[in-house]
Amino acid sequence: MIIKPNDALNWIKKSAELIAENRAYLIELDAPIGDADHGANMDRGFQAALQKLPELADKDIGTIFKTVGMTLISTVGGAAGPLYGSFFLQAGLKMAGKQEMSPSDWAEAFEAGVEGVKQRGKAQAGDKTMLDALLPAVQTLKRSIAGNTTFRQALADSVEAARLGMLATIPMVARKGRASYLGERSAGHQDPGATSSFLLLKAAADTWGGA
Length: 211
Hints:
The chain is mainly α. Helices cover 66% and strands 0% of the residues. It has helices spanning 5-21, 23-30, 38-52, 61-75, 80-94, 103-121, 131-146, 151-168, 192-208.
């Protein structure tokens, strides 16, 4: 199973679609523990990324990811811009110059992106952030690929791990980000960043599952 540049572009298109569809839901999640702007910010960023895609039609996968990353940094407000931007920038560096991406390449790019998020946000598992979805997702993806499952199944396994990680943020007390200011009152709410991370991984599975 090989991912081509056009597949990468289609992932961004699907991500923008899912973020737009869930804009109000992300705002609703963010309202009790944040600034109620995560959905609007993410939607604005991915709509801006969509506008960049025509000029990326003949570019390599690394360039596509890096351009998306820079666009998100410049257009997504709050902490999400630098965090998601770092994810795509680091994934792009890992895929620099590549016209093809194998399942193991994606696992490496994904892991590099997650490491970029960790470095930028100084967070870890259990802090009630997007990493609570991303970390189990990348670990599961690597394990599934190493076990010689199909790429479709590896992607599905990764998405399910992200979904469970997202739900696991509900009882957590936030230790990072705007929600951490609420202390114990942040418990009982699903983290919006973990939710948008899940949506991006679902978009990848939906787009590449039949590749």
